Structure formats: C-alpha cells, structure tokens
Amino acid sequence: MYNPQVPTDGHSKATDTHFGNDTQAFGNAPEQQGNQRIRHLLKCFGLRTSLIRLKVIDALLTAAANQRTLGVRGVHSHLLELGIPLSFLSVREVLKRLCSEGVITLNADKSYSLHEEAAKVLEGRA
After folding, report:
1. Is 111 within 8 Å of 71 (Cβ atoms)?
2. pTM here?
3. How many CB atoms lie within 10 A of CB 72?
4. Domains defined for the chain, CATH in brackets
C-alpha cells in the first residue's frame, strides 16, 4: 500500500534538502533576487505585486543596464521575446499606472525609465 509520507526514491527524509523560507535552497537565482527587489519596490509605492508589473519593471531595468530606452512597443516586444503573451494594451496600461504612482517616468522621447525615488529604493538608499 502506498504511503505518501514514506519516500519511494531511496532517500530518507532526514537527509533530503529542506524547503522552508530559506532562499539558499535554490542557490539564490539572480531572477529570484531581482523579483524580490521589484516586489519590495512595488510594496514601498503601495502597489500590489503582479506578474505583468514584475516583468515590465524588469524589462525597463534590463534596458537601462544595457544603456537602452524602451517605449511601450519596446517593452511589449521584449515581453513577447521572453514568451510572455501580453497584449499591447495591457502593457500600455501597466506603464501608465506605474507612471501615475511615481515608479517610472515618461521621458520626452516617449520612452520610460525608473523614477529617481524608485531607483533609490532598489539600491537600498531609501
């Protein structure tokens, strides 16, 4: 008879890796660390975390790290390249909301960038 509490792979429970709140269990993947920073940023601005907000901010941070700027189309294209099927309108609305909350700014050339205050939060200076 099958007992789900008894391991069937030949390993004892006592020697298996534990899966608690310890972030070391998965080797602190850079993406996980980045997501945690973005989650903290959104929380500081009073916004809920959503997958689209995480991905949009990550796209802007990636572009900034590569000395590039992205507009709505650029962010949308970047997300499509990553296999994230979001509509153009959804991306535009998220960018508008992040602008209105002061997380990002709309530049004169219609590109978006992280607001100075948001950058301070990500760097841990705020």
Report:
1. yes
2. 0.72
3. 20
4. 31-123 (1.10.10.10)
